[in-house]
Design goal:
The complex is a heterodimer. The N and C termini of chain A lie far apart (35 Å). A five-stranded parallel beta sheet of chain A has the order 2-1-3-4-5, with helices on both faces. Chain A has one domain: Rossmann fold, CATH 3.40.50.2300. By secondary structure, chain A is an alpha/beta fold. Chain A has five helices and six strands, in the order βαβαβαβαββα. In chain A, 44% of the residues lie in helices and 19% in strands. Chain A is globular. By secondary structure, chain B is of the alpha+beta class. Chain B folds into five domains: 120 residues, no CATH class; 197 residues, Dna Ligase, domain 1, CATH 3.30.1490; 113 residues, 2-Layer Sandwich (D-amino Acid Aminotransferase, Chain A, domain 1); 126 residues, Glucose Oxidase, domain 1 (3-Layer(bba) Sandwich), CATH 3.50.30; 208 residues, no CATH class. Chain B contains 25 helices and 33 strands. In chain B, the strands form five sheets. Chain B has an eight-stranded mixed beta sheet with strand order 18-25-24-20-21-22-23-19. Chain B has an eight-stranded mixed beta sheet with strand order 26-27-28-29-30-31-33-32, with helices on one face. Chain B has a seven-stranded antiparallel beta sheet with strand order 2-4-11-5-6-7-10. In chain B, β6 and β7 form a beta hairpin. Chain B is globular and about 95 Å long. The relative contact order of chain B is 0.09. β6 of chain A pairs antiparallel with β1 of chain B.
C-alpha cells in the first residue's frame, strides 16, 4: 500500500460533509484504509467552523443540505485555503450545478450514487497532482 | 392432397387481402410504437432495477434520495408500460392500473417508514418467516428462520407475533382504521395465537413456554431484545407464572422484574376441561396478552411518542443437557481471528468451557479453556473426565463438554447467521436430551469501538506482507471477504457434494447453482451478470460474490486455499488474516444500515418475478405482485397481441408486413419495429436488407442451400391419419396457426413465428451491446407423423440444441431451448445454425423410422452446420447472407 501524503509528508487530511450519515459512515473507513486522516460532518455549520480552524487537503461535500449548501462550503473551503481541493457530490446533478461547481474551483463533480472506486480514484488524482506540484523540478507557473 | 385441403380451408377462414381495408399508416405506426415503447421501457426498467440491486450488494455509495428517485423513476416507467399495453390492446388490461397503484402505494409507504400495510398475518410459525416480514418481526428472527435452508443446526420451533399483532393485542378496544392501513384486529390475533398454541401443545403438552420480547426498527439498532419470560403453569393448571428470565430493560425502565401470575380469565370462557392434561390454550393466550400490554405500557412511558413496535417469539422451553453461546468475533484474543464457543450444564453456569475456533472453514480449534471437573463425571461422547484414550491429540479433550464436530457445526451455523445479519452476534444454543442441538436466539454482539478499531486497524493491516493475487477483475455482485478452499462447480454437481465453507468457482452464474450458495463461503464465476437470478440469491445470502472473472477456473486451481475480497474483485493466495478481519468493515453496506433495510424492503415489491408461466391461471393482472411481474406480463401480452394482431384487430385493417424475397421455398413476412430492415428495401426486402443482426444471422442459415432437401418424404396412410386431428385443429385456428410466417424484427431483436408444414417454431433472440442481456430462445413443436416419429424428431432437435450448449427441455414433441450467458460469437453461430435447422428439420419426422435414422439425421446436420458452430461466427457484415 502506498502512503497517502499531504504537506511535509503527513497523511492527506480529508473533510467529508454530507447530511446523510450513511455516506460519511461508508466513506470514512474507506479513506482511512488508504492511510488518509478523515473527519466527517453531517451539518454544514460545524464543517465550516472546522474549516476556519484548520486546513484540509481535500474537502468532499454534498451539494444540497439545510443551512449552508455545498456551494457555500466550496467557497468557504477555497477562502480558508487556496490549496484545498474540493470534490462536490450530489444526488441532484444537473449540467448547471456541475458548471457552477467547476467555476467556483471544484476539482471534480461526482453524481450520487457513485462507486467507492470512483471517489478513491478522484482523491488519488488529487494526490498525484499535489505530488507533481511539490516536485522540485516542477515548472513554475506564473 | 393435403396442400389442397389446406388452401381451401385457409381461404374459408382467413380474410382475403382484397376484402380488408388497409390500415391507416399513422394508426399502424401508433400501434407499433406502443410495442416498441414497451420494449424500450422494459429495458430501461430492468436497468434501473439492476442498479438498485447492485446498490444492495454494496457496489454504490448512495443515500435515501437515491432510493426515492429510483422508485419514482421506475414507477413512472411501469405506468407508461401499463398505458402502452392498454393502448396496444384496446384497453384489455385496465385492472393492471389497479395493481400498479397498489404496489406504488406500498413502495411509498416503505419510503415513509409505514410498514403497517405489509402486515397480512399477525401470528405465524417461525419457519414461515421470510425477509419481506423483517420490518414486522426484526432481522434476528428472520435470520433464525433462514436456518431452514441450511443443512446444519436448526433453530428452535415456535411462533412469532408480529409488531402489528402486538399492536392489536396491546389495545383490545382499538378498531383498525383505514388511515392506519392495517386489517389486524385483536380477535384475529387471539385466534391466531390459539391455533399456534394448540399445534405446539399437541406435540409438547407439558412443556413450559419461553417468550422473547424484541423491540424492532429502533433509530440506532434494527433489533433490541428487551425481555424474556418463561410461562410456567402451576400444578392445578388454574394459573400460569410469568417469570422474567433476565433483568432486561427498555430504555431506563425495567420491563418487569417480578413474577406475576396470569389467572384464568373467567369473563371469557369456561374453566378448562379436566379431561385434557395439556395446558389450557386460553390461559396461555391471556399470558401473552399480559406480556404484550405490559411491554406496550412500559415502552409508552419511556418514549411518549406513540406505539413502539415490538414482537414476541414464543417457543416450548425444553429441558437442555447443555447450553451456551457462540460469540462470532472474539476481539479479546487477538491476534487470532477467532470466534468463541461457551458451554455449560444449565444448572451450573460457572462450570463453563470456552473454546476458540477460527472463523473460517474448517473452523480449526485454537484453544480450549476447560475447568477442573470431579472424577467419574461423564462428558462429551459419554467419556469419563479422566479418559483420554480417544483424544487423538485434540488438546486433551477427554474432559471437554462439547466434542469437536459439534463445535465446528456451531461455528459454521453462527458464521452463517453473522453473514445474514451483517454484524457480529451472540448466538444462544441448547443441546437437548435427544442429542438435538438448536439455536434459540441471536443478539448483536456489542464490541467497544476501541476493540473494533484495533481489530480493523488500517495501519496494522498495511504493515502486513501483501498476499499474492491469484485472480483479479470481474464485477462485484456482493461485497465482503471470505476464505476457503476452491471447489470447481459444474451444473451436474449435487449440492450435497459441495463441502460447506468452500469457495465455489463456476463457469456460468446459472440459477442451478442456487443450492450450492447455501453452503459456499464465496462464489466466483467466469460468466454472469450482476442482474441475474444467482446475483440476487448471493445478495440475499450476503455471500461475497464476483461474476465475470476471466479465466477464474484455470487461475484458481481445485482445492487451492484462497481469500476472496469481493469489494476489491480480487482473490488472494492463502488465508489472509488481516483481510478477514476487515470482513466486517464499516465501509461495507450492511443490514444494520437503515438505507440497506429500506432498499431491501423496496426491492421485495420491485424485483421478484412471480409470473413466469404464461399458461398458468394466475398469469393475469391480479397475479402481479411486483413491478417486474407487471412489465413481464405487459411484454408477454404485447408479443401475443402482435402474434394475433390480424385476428383481434380487424377494425384496424390489414397489417402492413412485407414479404421477404429469400429465394427459398418458404414465405416469411417481416414487420420492422425499428432499425431491422434497410429503409430502401422496398416492398420485397431480401436477406441483404436485414439490418437486424439476429435476423441476418438467422437468414444466413435459413437460406443455406444445404439446409433444403428438395425431395419430400413419402407419407403413409398411417402418417396422414395420425396427423389428421392435429392438422384439422390447426386449420380451425386461423391467425395463430395458419397465418403467414411472421418475423418481428428490430435492430437487436427478433421474434420469428414459423409454420413450416405442420411444425411450429418460435425463435426469440436479442443480440445487443450488453452481452449479459443477450439470449437465444428456440421453441419447436408439431409434426405430421405418428407420435413415435415425432418424438424421434424432437430428440434430433434437442440433440442439435444440446450440441450448441442450449439448455433443453423436451416434452413429447415440444422442444424448448435457451442459450444465454455465453460469448457473442457463440450466440451468432447458434442463430445461423437455427436458421439451417428450421429449414432442415421440416417434416423430417416422417422419415424417422428408427433411432438409427435419428442418429443419421443428426450426423448429417452436424457435418453440415455444427462444425461451423464449433468455429464461432465472426460478426456479420450486416445483410450478407450466405
Amino acid at each position: 500500500m502506498t502512503t497517502a501524503t499531504g504537506t511535509a509528508g503527513s497523511p492527506l487530511h480529508i473533510l467529508i460533509l454530507d447530511d446523510e450519515p450513511i455516506v460519511c459512515k461508508r466513506l470514512k473507513p474507506a479513506f482511512q484504509k488508504m492511510g488518509y486522516e478523515v473527519e466527517t460532518f453531517t451539518d454544514s455549520a460545524s464543517a465550516l467552523a472546522r474549516l476556519h480552524e484548520t486546513t484540509f487537503d481535500i474537502v468532499i461535500t454534498d451539494l444540497k443540505m439545510e443551512g449552508a449548501d455545498g456551494m457555500q462550503v466550496l467557497t468557504g473551503a477555497k477562502e480558508s485555503s487556496g490549496t484545498t481541493h474540493v470534490i462536490v457530490i450530489t444526488g441532484f446533478a444537473t449540467l448547471d450545478t456541475a458548471k457552477e461547481s467547476y467555476r467556483k474551483g471544484a476539482f471534480d463533480f461526482v453524481a450520487k450514487p457513485f462507486k467507492l472506486r470512483d471517489i478513491l480514484d478522484c482523491v488519488k488524482r488529487i494526490e498525484e497532482k499535489r505530488r507533481d506540484e511539490q516536485a522540485p523540478d516542477a515548472p513554475l507557473t506564473v | 392432397m393435403f396442400p389442397g385441403i389446406r388452401t381451401w380451408w385457409q381461404r374459408l377462414v382467413t380474410p382475403q387481402p382484397e376484402q380488408t381495408p388497409e390500415i391507416d399508416v399513422w394508426r399502424l405506426h401508433a400501434l407499433f410504437n406502443n410495442f416498441k415503447r414497451i420494449l424500450e421501457f422494459n429495458n430501461a426498467i430492468l436497468e434501473d432495477m439492476a442498479r438498485m440491486e447492485r446498490a444492495l450488494g454494496g457496489e454504490y455509495i448512495f443515500d435515501r434520495a437515491f432510493l426515492e428517485t429510483s422508485v419514482s423513476a421506475i414507477a413512472s416507467k411501469v405506468h407508461h408500460v401499463t398505458y402502452n399495453l392498454n393502448a396496444l390492446t384496446a384497453n384489455r388490461y385496465i385492472p393492471l392500473y389497479d395493481r400498479y397503484q397498489e404496489i406504488r402505494t406500498l413502495l411509498d409507504d416503505i419510503l415513509s417508514g409505514n410498514v403497517q400495510a405489509l402486515a397480512e398475518t399477525a401470528v405465524l410459525p417461525l419457519m414461515d418467516l421470510g425477509w419481506e416480514l423483517e420490518p414486522l418481526v426484526g432481522m434476528d428472527l428472520v435470520c433464525l428462520a433462514e436456518l431452514r435452508h441450511h443443512p446444519g443446526i436448526q433453530c428452535a420451533a415456535g411462533f412469532v407475533i408480529t409488531s402489528e399483532g402486538t399492536r392489536a393485542l396491546s389495545a383490545p378496544g382499538q378498531v383498525p382504521t383505514i388511515a392506519a392501513r392495517t386489517r389486524i384486529t385483536f380477535e384475529e390475533v387471539r385466534t391466531g395465537l390459539a391455533q399456534q398454541l394448540q399445534l405446539l401443545l399437541a406435540q409438547h403438552p407439558r412443556a413450559p413456554f419461553s417468550v422473547t420480547v424484541t423491540r424492532i426498527e429502533d433509530e440506532e439498532e434494527p433489533v433490541q431484545e428487551i425481555g424474556r419470560f418463561v410461562l410456567t403453569p402451576c400444578p392445578e393448571r388454574s394459573e400460569v407464572a410469568i417469570v422474567p428470565q433476565e433483568p432486561l430493560f427498555a430504555g431506563s425502565l425495567p420491563l418487569t422484574s417480578t413474577t406475576v401470575f396470569a389467572h384464568w380469565p373467567s369473563e371469557r370462557t369456561t374453566e378448562p376441561s379436566p379431561a385434557n392434561d395439556s395446558l389450557p390454550v386460553e390461559l396461555l393466550v391471556h399470558c401473552l396478552e399480559q406480556i404484550a400490554q405490559t411491554t406496550a405500557a412500559t415502552l409508552g412511558q419511556i418514549e411518549h411518542q406513540g406505539a413502539t413496535p415490538f414482537c414476541l417469539f414464543v417457543r416450548p422451553a425444553f429441558p437442555a443437557v447443555l447450553c451456551g453461546n457462540v460469540q462470532t468475533r472474539d476481539v479479546q484474543r487477538l491476534p487470532f481471528d477467532a470466534l468463541s464457543v461457551s458451554a455449560h450444564p444449565p444448572e451450573h453456569e460457572t462450570d463453563n468451557d470456552v473454546y476458540l475456533l477460527r472463523r473460517t472453514h474448517p473452523f480449526e480449534l485454537l484453544q480450549s479453556v476447560i475447568p477442573p471437573r470431579p472424577d467419574g463425571r461423564r462428558f462429551a461422547g459419554n467419556r469419563l473426565a479422566t479418559d483420554i484414550s480417544a483424544d487423538q491429540g485434540q488438546f486433551a479433550r477427554g474432559s471437554a463438554l462439547v466434542d469437536l464436530p459439534m463445535l465446528r457445526s456451531l461455528a459454521e451455523t453462527a458464521m452463517l447467521l453473522e453473514r445474514l445479519f451483517g454484524a457480529p452476534l451472540t448466538v444462544d444454543w441448547e443441546l437437548l436430551a435427544d442429542a438435538t442441538c438448536q439455536v434459540t436466539r441471536i443478539r448483536p454482539l456489542t464490541i467497544s469501538s476501541a476493540e473494533v478499531k484495533e481489530a480493523a486497524n488500517p495501519v496494522s493491516a498495511s504493515n502486513q506482507e501483501p498476499a499474492p493475487i491469484l485472480c483479479q477483475g470481474g464485477q462485484m455482485v456482493q461485497s465482503g471477504v471470505a476464505a476457503g478452499s476452491v471447489v470447481h462447480v459444474t451444473e451436474e454437481m449435487a449440492p450435497a457434494d459441495f463441502p460447506p465453507g468452500a469457495v465455489a468457482v463456476a463457469r456460468v452464474a446459472s440459477p442451478n447453482l442456487t443450492p450450492v450458495l447455501q453452503r459456499a463461503a464465496a462464489v466466483i464465476t467466469e460468466l454472469g451478470t450482476a442482474a441475474g437470478h444467482l446475483a440476487t440469491v448471493a445478495r440475499e445470502l450476503r455471500i461475497p460474490a464476483i461474476f465475470g472473472m476471466v479465466d477464474a477456473l484455470s487461475l484458481l486451481g481445485q482445492d487451492t486455499e484462497v481469500t476472496v475480497d469481493a469489494g476489491e474483485t480480487s482473490v488472494y493466495s492463502g488465508i489472509v488474516d488481516h483481510l478477514l478481519r476487515y470482513g466486517a468493515r464499516e465501509m461495507d453496506l450492511s443490514p444494520l444500515d437503515r438505507e440497506y433495510r429500506m432498499l431491501r424492503r423496496l426491492l421485495r415489491f420491485i424485483m421478484p418475478l412471480n409470473l413466469v408461466n404464461p399458461e398458468a391461471p394466475n398469469f393475469a393482472p391480479q397475479g402481479c405482485r411486483s413491478f417486474h411481474d407487471i412489465i413481464h406480463f405487459c411484454h408477454e401480452k404485447a408479443v401475443d397481441e402482435l402474434a394475433h394482431f390480424q385476428d383481434r384487430r380487424s377494425d384496424l385493417g390489414a397489417i402492413r408486413t412485407r414479404l421477404m424475397a429469400l429465394g427459398v421455398p418458404m414465405d416469411i413476412r417481416v414487420l420492422d419495429i425499428g432499425g431491422g430492415i434497410a429503409p430502401d428495401a422496398g416492398r420485397e426486402p431480401t436477406a441483404a436488407h436485414a439490418l437486424s443482426e439476429p435476423f441476418a444471422l438467422f437468414l444466413r442459415g435459413l437460406t443455406h442451400p444445404e439446409a433444403w432437401t428438395l425431395e419430400m418424404p413419402a407419407l403413409g396412410v398411417r402418417d396422414i391419419l395420425a396427423g389428421m386431428p392435429r392438422s384439422m385443429s390447426m386449420l380451425t385456428t386461423p391467425a395463430d396457426t395458419l397465418g403467414a410466417n411472421l418475423a418481428i424484427v428490430g435492430r437487436d431483436y427478433i421474434n420469428i413465428s414459423l409454420r413450416l408444414g405442420y411444425h411450429f417454431s418460435v425463435i426469440d433472440a436479442h443480440l445487443g451491446e450488453d452481452s449479459y442481456r443477450n439470449y437465444v430462445y428456440f421453441r419447436f413443436a408439431g409434426g405430421l407423423a405418428d407420435p413415435k416419429r415425432r418424438q424421434r424428431r424432437a430428440h434430433f432437435i434437442s440433440a442439435v440444441l444440446a450440441a450448441m450448449d442450449f439448455k433443453v427441455t423436451v416434452k413429447g414433441d415440444l422442444v424448448i431451448g435457451r442459450l444465454k450467458l455465453v460469448e457473442l460469437p457463440v450466440l451468432r453461430s447458434a442463430l445461423v445454425a437455427l436458421g439451417a435447422l428450421t429449414a432442415f428439420s421440416r417434416q423430417r419426422d416422417t422419415g424417422l423410422y428408427s433411432d438409427a435414422d435419428t442418429s443419421e439425421l443428426f450426423r448429417c446436420f452436424a457435418d453440415a452446420f455444427l462444425d461451423d458452430f464449433r468455429r464461432p461466427a465472426t460478426p456479420l457484415s450486416l445483410g450478407a447472407a450466405a
